[in-house]
Amino acid sequence: MSTFLEFSEDGKTLLSIPKDIEEVIIKSEIEYIADKAGKNCYNLKKVVLPETVKKIGKNAFDGCSNLEKINFPKNVCIDHEAFASTNLKEVDLSFTTLLGGNTFNNCKNLEKVIMPKDMKVFKTSFFHNSSVKDLVLPENLESIFCNALADFTEIESITLPKTFKEMDDPCFNACMLLKKINVDPLNEKFKSIDGVLFDKTGEILYKFPQNFGKMYIVPKNTKVIGNQAFAGNKILEKIILPEGLEVIKDKAFMHSHFTDITFPVSLKKMEKKAFAYSKLKMLYVPNIRFDEGIFCHSKDLEKIIFDDDIKILPPSMFAGCENLIDAKLPNLIEIKEQAFQNCYRLKNIKLPESLTFIDNKAFFNCDLSGELIIPQNITVIGKKVFSDNINLKSVTINSKRLLMNGLCFLGDTDLENVTFNSKFLEINKDDIFEDCQNLKHIYLDKSLLKINPIFASKYSPLIKDLIENVFDISTSFKQINEIYKQR
Questions:
Q1: Using CA atoms, how far apart are residues 201 and 86, in angstroms rounded to an integer?
Q2: Each residue of 185-204: pLDDT tens digit?
Q3: Which residues are bridge partners to 313 per DSSP?
Q4: Which residues of the chain have pLDDT under 70?
Q5: Is 251 exposed, middle or buried (0-12, 13-18, 19+ CB in 10 A)?
């Protein structure tokens, strides 16, 4: 086996390194290390490069599992996976340019990294599956993208420079051992309060370190909890929100592990999926503005107490809350789509008399059982609203004017009796009782003035009390139809 390095004809490129060599010291003024030049040189421990080197190619030293030391010439460019799976313990990249991702992939003993000084945007991960504990961010850094820090799972503290301006919401979420976020005092946009990242005014809490501790009292001056500020935190067991807090932003506490929370009176708004996938067990829901999916997939949630003044439940608010048993509804006007979808243990629900509209799949695949009473003010029931409630036995519909949409009771296999106490009944399709295998009777009010003739024909063997002369007053439902279309 050759023990000589192989160069290009012009002497500017190192083409290959012998597999059995332990040390490479290059004194000639080469400019390039070729792609895979030293790949899988398992015995290689040390490399000394001249300052003339401009670029280290892809996978140049990939798989050099014993490589512990290498110098990086000033202004050198380092390409994709150039030092993957090496034994480097620390690297000073101050005057380098990183061209590709995963440059130091699988460097499991790499603990200290000094990033390139000229780097302004930290876009991608260079250290996948490494053990970096000490990361010095460049002094000119302005922004961090979402996956840039995804592999720094063992970092305990990080310091943001004075130039730092912006970050993607989840950029610190994977740093599971992070205890403190420090900020240069000269930074004009951010500051650190006891290791937690805030805006300069202290009114917006941006990021809470994943390993901060088991309890946190949010400072009194805080008005906004930022996007994904506490997302994925598995350590925090108790949090106290201050009076004066007004907004909880998107996914702020998603995948959080504390089991209870009290909302301040000052709170005005929660944005999308603020507590999705949380571990909350019991919940008081205040009368504020909600976006969709606020508590969705919180599988430990068992009981909900609503503020009496809540009028609208937004889409997917409790969708996928598999252990929800008790939900006493307030004087609602509307229940939006999928609000309680896949709440498998939700057995009994009393719809309030004030309710006028139930949107698509609102109670899809719940466990509603016994008798369901639909109150008289409801004018629209959307598609598949009560579908797959296999233990539902009977339904009484007291609505005066009702528009029902397709597959409303699809798959309610135990449903036996349905009573319509409606004078005006608009049924868009003839499939609202599809796969209701045990349906025996459909009772219609004798004062009924309108019904879909196809529906009447399909279920005629089950229909009772249907008078012979049913008037088709199609104009009666024009307004209701328009309202439904707008929703």
A1: 44
A2: 999 999 999 999 999 999 99
A3: 335
A4: 1-3, 99, 449-450, 465-487
A5: buried
Cα 331 from Cα 438, distance rounded (Å): 33
The angle subtended at Cα 149 by Cα 81 and Cα 109, nearest 5°, is 55
What is the reported pLDDT for 343? 97
Phi-psi region of 466 (alpha: psi -120 to 50; beta: other; left: phi over 0): beta
Rounded to an integer, what distance in angstroms lies between the CA atom of residue 45 and that of residue 49? 13
Please state the pTM of the whole predicted model.
Answer: 0.85
Q: Which residue has the tokens 């107490």?
A: 305
Strand 190-193 relative to strand 180-183, pairing = unpaired
SS (H, E, C) 219-274: CCCCCEECCCCCCCCCCCCEEECCCCCCEECCCCCCCCCCCCCCCCCCCCEECCCC
Question: What local confidence, expressed as pLDDT, does residue 475 receive?
Answer: 36
DSSP per-residue codes, 119-169: --EE-S-S-TT----EEE--TT--EE-TTTTTT-TT--EEEE-TT--EE-T
Q: Which residues contact 59 (CB under 8 A, 6 or more apart)?
A: 35, 36, 39, 80, 81, 82, 84
Distance CA(215)–CA(260), nearest Å, equals: 12
Contact 274, 250 (CB under 8 A): yes
